[in-house]
Amino acid sequence: MKDHSGTIQSNQSENQKLVVMAVYSYIMFVGCYLLYNIAYMLVTACVAATFQIPTEIHYWKTFFNIPLWWWNQPNVIFTFSSGPISCAIMGTICLRLFFFFRKTKNWLRLFFLWGYHHGFNLFFGAYVSGVISRSGFRHASNWAAIPQEIEYFIAIGALICMFLVGFLSVKFFLQMAVSQSILVNHKRNRYITAVVFLPWFLGACSIILLKSPNITYNEALIFLMMFTSVVPVYIAQRFFYEVSILRFEKAVKINWSLLIILAVGMFLFRYVLTDGILIQFFPEVKIQWLNH
To answer: What are phi and psi of 244, to 5 degrees?
Structure first.
């Protein structure tokens, strides 16, 4: 089928396109989070190891093999802030890479866009979650002698930043559309639901199930905090009347190999990190899979 300009068009229905895009977005959301989660734990463990703290990485939590009285202000602040800071840096890099791939028809655009969200959620959202659960990133500010009242103000500021992350990504998500027809004003909510809300909701549920029954209260809250960057996409999409997209002339199809790779990755994540990985730098450097 051809349009008036002579371009070959696909007979694929809008619902089919939305399903394919939802599946790709889900794959990118979950795969990206697993990579961030591993990086978060590795950076935290390596920083702790530099303070002579042997650390075990498990799929649900990082364990520090020292008694409580060995902790001091420097090693607490640097250890518990290193993961969130590294994620914020990775989020910034993902945003830059998104701009690099934005004018291509590569699905990596969605990967880097979700990487932008994950990166800042694991910084701003992690702080809010830490303040609520009294754990995680919040340990850094607590040991820095920041009063509890100030922590609440910082948490509110972090929530505002998460809303800004969502608002800044609205146009980027709209540009992921494979055709203009699914961006008609009265259809945009369906598009946002398929490409943003469902991947976040189902992706978060998948990760929680993957880590069950040991998922921590803090990490579950971090997923909930991402809602603050998803909601603005619904609110602000109406302000973008015209959005330039890269239209796909051929029918878009699901690359099943990506789903298989994701499933294998999730299995390996759970299998390897059930026993855990030990990281220590003193008295000798040791990176060991604790396969008992």
So the answer is: -85, 130
Q: What is the pTM of this model?
A: 0.91
Q: What is the rounded CA–CA span in Å between residue 154 and residue 148?
A: 10
Three-state secondary structure of 208-262: HHHHCCCCCHHHHHHHHHCHHHHHHHHHHHHHCCCCCCCCCCCCCCCCHHHHHHH
Dump pLDDT digits (tens) for 255-278.
999 999 999 999 999 999 999 999
Q: Which residues contact 199 (CB under 8 A, 6 or more apart)?
A: 22, 25, 26, 28, 29, 114
More confident residue, 239 or 227: 227
Each residue of 67-92: pLDDT tens digit?
888 899 999 999 999 999 999 999 99
d(CA 246, CA 183): 13
Mean pLDDT, the chain, integer: 90
What is the dihedral sign for C-alpha 205, 210, 214, 218?
Answer: negative
Q: Distance (Å, rounded) from C-alpha 138 to C-alpha 71? A: 15
Cα separation, 169 vs 119, in Å, equals 13
CA distance linking residue 84 with residue 166, whole number of Å: 18
- In 3D space, the residue among 207, 185, 233 whose CA is nearest the CA of residue 59 turns out to be 207
Q: Per the structure block, which two tokens stand in for 30?
A: 């979950």
* CA 266 – CA 33 distance, rounded (Å): 11
Question: CA-CA distance, 67 to 49, in Å (whole number)?
Answer: 15
Tell me the pLDDT tens digit for each residue of 142-194: 999 999 999 999 999 999 999 999 999 998 999 888 888 888 877 888 999 99
| 119/45 Cα distance (integer angstroms) | 18
SS3 assignment, position 13: coil
- Maximum Cα interatomic distance, the chain, rounded to a whole number of Å: 75
Place of tokens 């004003």: 185
